[in-house]
Design goal:
The structure is a homodimer. Chain A is an alpha/beta fold. The first copy, chain A, has 6 helices and 11 strands. In chain A, the strands form 3 sheets. Chain A has a 6-stranded mixed sheet with strand order 5-4-8-9-10-11, with helices on both faces. The first copy, chain A, has a two-stranded antiparallel sheet with strand order 1-2. A two-stranded antiparallel sheet of chain A has the order 6-7. In chain A, helix 3 crosses helix 4. Strand 3 of chain A pairs antiparallel with strand 5 of chain B, so a sheet runs across the interface.
Chain lengths: ~190, ~190
């Protein structure tokens, strides 16, 4: 998506260690209009999958998941990273490494909001190693739900996430694919 | 707002200790269409304040803040509760008690995204004691920004938040005001 690529090129900051800072429009400050445009684009690409729910992980996944859900007319479920007191004792829980936190984080979903055989579309901000998304896949599978598609705003193609998701045999769509960030330059693959 | 009140009446669960569980449409599963309607209503009520930015706290504030920002044509900034590695060393940080976590949490904003004299509209999911919102107010004031309005989805009027915010002398709007939750019954004040 041209609009997103241009914004990344203009405002994205390479912090080293494979970290791309997009805090001015995705991860701390959020450009609502841009997120809406991204949600519309995901909705267009995933329109025919019959998804009943959009699944994401707090925190940064919420904005693009919400706008996608809005355009598809679906609810969102976001996996929590700490169990709130409103959640039942029995939950689906898995661990995933967090790139930006440098440690393992929990991903938790209440069985109340993921049903057996439910078709689920995963939306997240980044596709890097795919570890967070694979965590969401495990949670969905534990609930008996079926992942029908995966969409991310920004894919770092050099971190292998797409290969890690290949065995799922479902469409994986990223709105901006970064092929390299060497020498402080962001190079897109499309 | 009738639509929100009806949903709270139908799906809200009183867990005791003043906790209202609305995880099926606000706090874990999110009804995107309802959030959009709430955002539209906030945008209508706060249209004339000249806000340049919507401010909220992760995690549950993000959805209503985003839809409000969308309808007002503004960006959102959400205060982080843990400092990500993408954030500069020097930040605005304050502490606020979390009702649902039963402990103090940090609220952190990067100086990059709150400017001196910037007019800011605060949107959050709950107004209970007002402690989280007062935390956001302190962060905004530290940045020299000016809070021009406060909007929350659900106000528990019996927890004193509105009084705690009164000294700010700005409009405080809640879309559903709960006057009591005694005997397992949710009673709205409007």
């Amino acid at each position: 998506m041209k609009e997103l690529q241009e914004r990344i090129q203009r405002e994205g900051q390479i912090l080293g260690n494979g970290i791309l800072k997009v805090d001015s429009f995705v991860n701390h400050q959020v450009d609502a209009a841009l997120m809406d445009a991204c949600g519309r684009e995901f909705a267009r690409r995933f329109a025919n999958l019959g998804a009943a729910k959009v699944l994401t992980a707090e925190i940064s996944g919420i904005a693009p998941a919400l706008t996608t859900a809005l355009h598809l007319g679906l609810p969102v479920v976001y996996a929590r990273k700490t169990k709130p007191i409103t959640m039942p004792d029995q939950v689906y829980l898995t661990l995933a490494p967090s790139h930006t936190k440098g440690r393992m984080v929990e991903l938790i979903i209440s069985p109340e909001y993921l049903a057996n055989h439910e078709k689920v579309l995963i939306i997240d901000d980044f596709l890097a190693s795919g570890a967070t998304i694979l965590g969401l896949v495990r949670l969905a599978e534990a609930a008996g739900a079926k992942i029908v598609g995966i969409g991310t705003l920004i894919e770092k193609t050099f971190e292998g996430g797409r290969e890690a998701l290949k065995h799922l045999n479902i469409p994986v769509e990223s709105l901006a694919c970064i092929a390299s960030m060497d020498d402080g330059k962001i190079v897109f693959s499309e």
